[in-house]
Amino acid sequence: MKSYKLAIVGATGVVGRTVLKVLEEKKLPISEYVLFASKRSCGTKLHFMGKDYEVRELTETSFDEGFDFAIFSAGGDTAKKFAPIAASKGCIVVDNSSAFRMEKDVPLIVPEVNSEEIKNHRGIIANPNCSTIQAVVALKPLDTKYHIKRIVYSTYQAVSGAGSKGIFDLENGIHDFENKQDYALQKFPYPIFNNCLPHIDVFLENGYTKEEEKMINETRKILKRPDLKITATTIRVPVFNSHSESINVEFEKDFDLKELVLTLKNAPNVIVQDDVKNNIYPLATNATGHDEVFVGRIRRDESIKSGINLWVVADNIRKGAASNAIQIVEKLIDFDNN
Q1: What's the CATH number where 192 sits?
Q2: CA atoms lying within 13 Å on the CB side of residue 228
Q3: Could you say which of 16, 51, 120, 240 would form a disulfide bridge with 10 (CB–CB 3.0 to 4.6 Å)?
Q4: Global model pTM greater than 0.90
Q5: What CATH number corresponds to the domain at position 110?
Q6: Residue 222 sits in the same domain as residue 295
Q7: Which three-class secondary structure state does DSSP give residue 235?
Q8: Which of 238, 165, 160, 169 lies closest to 197, judged by CA?
Q9: pLDDT in tens, 56-97
Protein backbone atom coordinates (compact mmCIF):
# COMPACT_ATOMS: atom_id res chain seq x y z
CA MET A 1 0.00 0.00 0.00
CA LYS A 2 1.30 3.45 -0.89
CA SER A 3 1.82 6.10 1.77
CA TYR A 4 0.32 9.57 1.84
CA LYS A 5 0.98 13.12 3.01
CA LEU A 6 -1.67 14.69 5.28
CA ALA A 7 -2.18 18.29 6.40
CA ILE A 8 -4.11 19.08 9.58
CA VAL A 9 -5.46 22.63 9.47
CA GLY A 10 -6.57 24.10 12.79
CA ALA A 11 -4.36 21.65 14.68
CA THR A 12 -4.32 23.64 17.93
CA GLY A 13 -8.11 23.84 18.39
CA VAL A 14 -10.40 21.50 20.32
CA VAL A 15 -11.28 19.46 17.23
CA GLY A 16 -7.77 19.68 15.76
CA ARG A 17 -6.18 18.21 18.87
CA THR A 18 -8.75 15.40 18.84
CA VAL A 19 -7.91 14.74 15.18
CA LEU A 20 -4.31 14.22 16.25
CA LYS A 21 -5.36 11.87 19.06
CA VAL A 22 -7.55 9.76 16.77
CA LEU A 23 -4.85 9.64 14.09
CA GLU A 24 -2.45 8.20 16.66
CA GLU A 25 -4.97 5.45 17.35
CA LYS A 26 -5.81 4.70 13.70
CA LYS A 27 -2.27 4.35 12.32
CA LEU A 28 -3.16 5.18 8.72
CA PRO A 29 -0.56 4.76 5.96
CA ILE A 30 0.56 8.39 6.29
CA SER A 31 4.28 9.00 5.76
CA GLU A 32 4.24 12.72 6.52
CA TYR A 33 2.07 14.98 8.64
CA VAL A 34 2.14 18.79 8.57
CA LEU A 35 0.26 20.83 11.16
CA PHE A 36 -1.17 24.26 10.35
CA ALA A 37 -2.98 26.95 12.34
CA SER A 38 -3.45 30.70 12.34
CA LYS A 39 -0.61 33.19 12.69
CA ARG A 40 -1.49 33.53 16.38
CA SER A 41 -0.72 29.83 17.00
CA CYS A 42 2.25 29.63 14.66
CA GLY A 43 5.25 28.09 16.40
CA THR A 44 3.24 26.12 18.94
CA LYS A 45 4.77 22.71 19.66
CA LEU A 46 2.42 19.71 19.73
CA HIS A 47 3.54 16.21 20.72
CA PHE A 48 2.18 13.80 18.14
CA MET A 49 3.16 10.34 16.91
CA GLY A 50 6.00 10.19 19.42
CA LYS A 51 7.66 13.46 18.49
CA ASP A 52 7.20 17.22 18.70
CA TYR A 53 5.70 19.00 15.71
CA GLU A 54 5.96 22.76 15.24
CA VAL A 55 2.70 24.25 14.00
CA ARG A 56 3.08 26.30 10.82
CA GLU A 57 1.11 29.36 9.81
CA LEU A 58 -1.49 28.61 7.13
CA THR A 59 -0.84 30.77 4.06
CA GLU A 60 -1.85 30.83 0.41
CA THR A 61 1.34 28.95 -0.49
CA SER A 62 1.09 26.26 2.20
CA PHE A 63 -0.13 23.62 -0.23
CA ASP A 64 2.49 24.26 -2.90
CA GLU A 65 4.67 21.50 -1.48
CA GLY A 66 2.04 18.89 -2.34
CA PHE A 67 -0.41 17.01 -0.11
CA ASP A 68 -2.68 14.04 -0.74
CA PHE A 69 -5.24 14.97 1.92
CA ALA A 70 -6.05 17.79 4.32
CA ILE A 71 -8.41 17.80 7.30
CA PHE A 72 -9.70 21.32 7.97
CA SER A 73 -10.98 22.18 11.47
CA ALA A 74 -10.47 25.92 11.40
CA GLY A 75 -13.89 27.48 10.79
CA GLY A 76 -15.89 28.52 7.76
CA ASP A 77 -13.99 31.65 6.76
CA THR A 78 -10.67 29.81 6.73
CA ALA A 79 -12.18 26.93 4.78
CA LYS A 80 -13.73 29.20 2.15
CA LYS A 81 -10.39 30.87 1.54
CA PHE A 82 -7.92 28.00 1.74
CA ALA A 83 -9.82 24.79 0.87
CA PRO A 84 -10.22 25.75 -2.82
CA ILE A 85 -6.50 26.62 -2.94
CA ALA A 86 -5.60 23.20 -1.51
CA ALA A 87 -7.96 21.43 -3.92
CA SER A 88 -6.45 23.29 -6.88
CA LYS A 89 -3.07 21.78 -5.92
CA GLY A 90 -4.45 18.23 -6.07
CA CYS A 91 -5.10 17.88 -2.34
CA ILE A 92 -8.43 16.34 -1.28
CA VAL A 93 -9.90 18.43 1.54
CA VAL A 94 -12.18 17.07 4.25
CA ASP A 95 -13.73 20.15 5.86
CA ASN A 96 -15.33 20.22 9.30
CA SER A 97 -16.97 23.64 8.89
CA SER A 98 -20.38 24.47 7.42
CA ALA A 99 -18.78 26.33 4.48
CA PHE A 100 -19.47 23.74 1.78
CA ARG A 101 -22.05 21.37 3.26
CA MET A 102 -25.02 22.45 1.22
CA GLU A 103 -23.18 23.05 -2.06
CA LYS A 104 -24.59 20.80 -4.75
CA ASP A 105 -21.27 19.46 -6.00
CA VAL A 106 -19.75 18.82 -2.55
CA PRO A 107 -20.46 15.41 -0.99
CA LEU A 108 -21.72 15.57 2.61
CA ILE A 109 -20.44 12.36 4.11
CA VAL A 110 -21.10 10.08 7.06
CA PRO A 111 -19.22 6.89 6.08
CA GLU A 112 -21.71 4.53 7.77
CA VAL A 113 -24.50 6.12 5.74
CA ASN A 114 -23.35 7.29 2.30
CA SER A 115 -19.69 6.42 1.75
CA GLU A 116 -20.36 5.74 -1.95
CA GLU A 117 -20.85 9.50 -2.43
CA ILE A 118 -17.19 10.13 -1.58
CA LYS A 119 -16.22 9.18 -5.13
CA ASN A 120 -18.21 12.17 -6.45
CA HIS A 121 -15.93 14.75 -4.87
CA ARG A 122 -14.26 17.54 -6.84
CA GLY A 123 -11.50 18.13 -4.35
CA ILE A 124 -13.61 19.04 -1.33
CA ILE A 125 -15.67 16.76 0.94
CA ALA A 126 -17.81 18.19 3.74
CA ASN A 127 -18.14 16.78 7.24
CA PRO A 128 -21.71 17.29 8.53
CA ASN A 129 -22.73 19.08 11.69
CA CYS A 130 -21.94 17.04 14.79
CA SER A 131 -25.58 16.72 15.84
CA THR A 132 -26.56 15.58 12.34
CA ILE A 133 -23.87 12.90 12.16
CA GLN A 134 -25.01 10.92 15.18
CA ALA A 135 -28.65 11.25 14.19
CA VAL A 136 -28.28 9.87 10.67
CA VAL A 137 -26.07 6.96 11.79
CA ALA A 138 -29.09 5.77 13.80
CA LEU A 139 -31.76 6.82 11.29
CA LYS A 140 -30.32 5.50 8.02
CA PRO A 141 -31.00 1.78 8.65
CA LEU A 142 -34.51 2.62 9.81
CA ASP A 143 -35.17 4.78 6.76
CA THR A 144 -33.99 1.96 4.50
CA LYS A 145 -36.30 -0.58 6.16
CA TYR A 146 -39.38 1.46 7.11
CA HIS A 147 -39.12 4.69 5.05
CA ILE A 148 -39.20 7.72 7.33
CA LYS A 149 -42.16 10.08 6.93
CA ARG A 150 -41.29 12.73 9.54
CA ILE A 151 -38.58 13.52 12.11
CA VAL A 152 -38.76 15.68 15.24
CA TYR A 153 -35.31 16.51 16.66
CA SER A 154 -34.74 17.79 20.19
CA THR A 155 -31.06 18.07 21.03
CA TYR A 156 -29.18 18.56 24.29
CA GLN A 157 -25.75 19.69 23.16
CA ALA A 158 -22.56 19.85 25.19
CA VAL A 159 -20.48 23.00 25.56
CA SER A 160 -17.49 21.44 23.78
CA GLY A 161 -19.51 21.93 20.59
CA ALA A 162 -18.99 25.66 21.11
CA GLY A 163 -15.20 25.32 21.31
CA SER A 164 -12.79 26.25 24.06
CA LYS A 165 -14.72 29.41 25.01
CA GLY A 166 -17.86 27.38 25.62
CA ILE A 167 -15.90 25.02 27.87
CA PHE A 168 -14.44 28.01 29.73
CA ASP A 169 -17.92 29.45 30.36
CA LEU A 170 -19.06 26.24 32.03
CA GLU A 171 -15.82 25.80 33.99
CA ASN A 172 -15.94 29.43 35.16
CA GLY A 173 -19.61 29.11 36.03
CA ILE A 174 -18.97 26.11 38.27
CA HIS A 175 -15.93 27.70 39.91
CA ASP A 176 -17.55 31.06 40.52
CA PHE A 177 -20.81 29.52 41.80
CA GLU A 178 -18.81 27.64 44.40
CA ASN A 179 -16.92 30.81 45.31
CA LYS A 180 -19.94 33.13 45.00
CA GLN A 181 -18.24 35.28 42.39
CA ASP A 182 -19.34 36.84 39.12
CA TYR A 183 -17.51 35.98 35.92
CA ALA A 184 -17.25 37.33 32.40
CA LEU A 185 -18.89 35.22 29.70
CA GLN A 186 -16.65 34.32 26.77
CA LYS A 187 -19.10 32.50 24.49
CA PHE A 188 -22.74 32.34 25.54
CA PRO A 189 -25.24 35.22 25.94
CA TYR A 190 -26.23 33.89 29.38
CA PRO A 191 -24.51 31.65 31.94
CA ILE A 192 -24.56 28.03 30.79
CA PHE A 193 -23.94 26.71 34.30
CA ASN A 194 -27.31 25.80 35.85
CA ASN A 195 -29.11 26.73 32.61
CA CYS A 196 -30.34 25.21 29.37
CA LEU A 197 -30.04 27.67 26.50
CA PRO A 198 -32.47 27.16 23.58
CA HIS A 199 -30.08 29.06 21.36
CA ILE A 200 -27.30 27.48 19.27
CA ASP A 201 -25.85 29.65 16.49
CA VAL A 202 -27.78 32.71 15.25
CA PHE A 203 -31.53 33.13 15.01
CA LEU A 204 -33.08 33.27 11.54
CA GLU A 205 -36.08 35.24 10.35
CA ASN A 206 -38.38 32.22 10.68
CA GLY A 207 -37.55 31.87 14.39
CA TYR A 208 -35.36 28.81 13.98
CA THR A 209 -31.65 28.92 14.74
CA LYS A 210 -28.99 28.21 12.14
CA GLU A 211 -28.10 25.02 14.03
CA GLU A 212 -31.67 23.79 13.68
CA GLU A 213 -31.68 24.64 10.00
CA LYS A 214 -28.39 22.76 9.56
CA MET A 215 -29.84 19.59 11.05
CA ILE A 216 -32.92 19.78 8.85
CA ASN A 217 -31.14 20.47 5.57
CA GLU A 218 -28.16 18.19 6.17
CA THR A 219 -30.36 15.22 7.11
CA ARG A 220 -32.30 15.65 3.89
CA LYS A 221 -29.12 15.81 1.80
CA ILE A 222 -27.40 12.83 3.45
CA LEU A 223 -30.48 10.59 3.29
CA LYS A 224 -31.26 11.82 -0.25
CA ARG A 225 -34.74 12.82 0.93
CA PRO A 226 -35.09 16.49 -0.14
CA ASP A 227 -38.79 16.63 0.78
CA LEU A 228 -38.53 14.81 4.10
CA LYS A 229 -40.56 16.54 6.83
CA ILE A 230 -38.25 17.52 9.69
CA THR A 231 -38.41 19.97 12.56
CA ALA A 232 -35.76 20.65 15.20
CA THR A 233 -35.12 22.38 18.50
CA THR A 234 -31.46 22.52 19.56
CA ILE A 235 -30.50 23.28 23.14
CA ARG A 236 -27.13 23.94 24.78
CA VAL A 237 -26.88 22.21 28.16
CA PRO A 238 -24.32 22.35 31.01
CA VAL A 239 -22.56 19.14 29.95
CA PHE A 240 -18.88 19.23 29.00
CA ASN A 241 -18.87 16.69 26.18
CA SER A 242 -21.12 14.42 24.09
CA HIS A 243 -24.44 15.44 22.59
CA SER A 244 -27.74 13.79 23.51
CA GLU A 245 -30.76 13.79 21.22
CA SER A 246 -34.40 12.87 21.58
CA ILE A 247 -35.54 11.79 18.12
CA ASN A 248 -39.19 11.15 17.30
CA VAL A 249 -39.73 9.38 13.99
CA GLU A 250 -42.87 8.59 12.03
CA PHE A 251 -42.59 5.88 9.36
CA GLU A 252 -44.51 5.18 6.18
CA LYS A 253 -44.49 1.45 7.03
CA ASP A 254 -45.53 -0.29 10.22
CA PHE A 255 -42.88 -2.13 12.21
CA ASP A 256 -42.33 -4.85 14.75
CA LEU A 257 -40.52 -3.30 17.72
CA LYS A 258 -38.19 -6.25 18.31
CA GLU A 259 -37.28 -6.30 14.63
CA LEU A 260 -36.61 -2.55 14.69
CA VAL A 261 -34.29 -2.92 17.68
CA LEU A 262 -32.47 -5.76 15.90
CA THR A 263 -32.08 -3.53 12.84
CA LEU A 264 -30.34 -0.94 15.01
CA LYS A 265 -28.15 -3.57 16.68
CA ASN A 266 -26.98 -4.74 13.26
CA ALA A 267 -26.26 -1.21 11.97
CA PRO A 268 -22.61 -0.16 11.61
CA ASN A 269 -21.16 1.68 14.63
CA VAL A 270 -24.47 1.66 16.51
CA ILE A 271 -24.55 0.32 20.07
CA VAL A 272 -27.99 -0.30 21.55
CA GLN A 273 -28.21 0.31 25.30
CA ASP A 274 -31.84 -0.25 26.12
CA ASP A 275 -32.57 -2.13 29.33
CA VAL A 276 -34.76 0.24 31.31
CA LYS A 277 -35.53 -2.36 33.98
CA ASN A 278 -31.90 -2.06 34.99
CA ASN A 279 -31.61 1.68 34.27
CA ILE A 280 -29.43 1.07 31.23
CA TYR A 281 -29.60 3.76 28.56
CA PRO A 282 -27.06 5.98 26.76
CA LEU A 283 -25.25 8.61 28.82
CA ALA A 284 -22.98 11.44 27.72
CA THR A 285 -20.30 10.41 30.21
CA ASN A 286 -20.21 6.88 28.76
CA ALA A 287 -20.17 8.01 25.12
CA THR A 288 -17.23 10.36 25.59
CA GLY A 289 -14.05 8.97 24.09
CA HIS A 290 -15.87 6.57 21.75
CA ASP A 291 -16.63 6.67 18.02
CA GLU A 292 -19.86 4.68 18.18
CA VAL A 293 -23.38 6.10 18.35
CA PHE A 294 -25.36 4.88 21.35
CA VAL A 295 -29.14 4.38 21.10
CA GLY A 296 -31.67 3.62 23.82
CA ARG A 297 -35.12 4.44 25.27
CA ILE A 298 -36.50 2.78 22.14
CA ARG A 299 -40.27 2.78 22.37
CA ARG A 300 -43.35 3.25 20.25
CA ASP A 301 -44.91 6.67 19.93
CA GLU A 302 -48.43 5.62 20.86
CA SER A 303 -49.93 8.92 19.64
CA ILE A 304 -49.50 7.97 15.96
CA LYS A 305 -49.86 4.83 13.85
CA SER A 306 -46.21 4.08 13.11
CA GLY A 307 -43.92 6.14 15.30
CA ILE A 308 -40.86 5.57 17.45
CA ASN A 309 -38.93 7.48 20.11
CA LEU A 310 -35.13 7.19 20.33
CA TRP A 311 -32.49 8.58 22.69
CA VAL A 312 -29.25 8.99 20.73
CA VAL A 313 -25.91 9.94 22.32
CA ALA A 314 -22.42 10.35 20.83
CA ASP A 315 -19.13 12.12 21.41
CA ASN A 316 -19.59 15.30 19.39
CA ILE A 317 -15.86 16.05 19.12
CA ARG A 318 -14.82 12.54 18.12
CA LYS A 319 -17.61 10.99 16.02
CA GLY A 320 -19.20 14.38 15.47
CA ALA A 321 -16.07 15.86 13.91
CA ALA A 322 -12.58 14.35 14.18
CA SER A 323 -13.28 10.65 13.75
CA ASN A 324 -15.83 11.12 11.01
CA ALA A 325 -13.30 13.16 9.02
CA ILE A 326 -10.62 10.53 9.53
CA GLN A 327 -13.05 7.79 8.48
CA ILE A 328 -13.53 9.72 5.23
CA VAL A 329 -9.77 9.80 4.69
CA GLU A 330 -9.68 6.04 5.38
CA LYS A 331 -12.32 5.50 2.68
CA LEU A 332 -10.38 7.67 0.23
CA ILE A 333 -7.30 5.55 0.84
CA ASP A 334 -9.32 2.34 0.39
CA PHE A 335 -10.75 3.61 -2.91
CA ASP A 336 -7.28 4.61 -4.08
CA ASN A 337 -5.89 1.15 -3.39
CA ASN A 338 -8.77 -0.91 -4.81
Answers
A1: 3.30.360.10
A2: 27
A3: 16
A4: yes
A5: 3.40.50.720
A6: yes
A7: strand
A8: 238
A9: 999 999 999 999 999 999 999 999 999 999 999 999 999 999
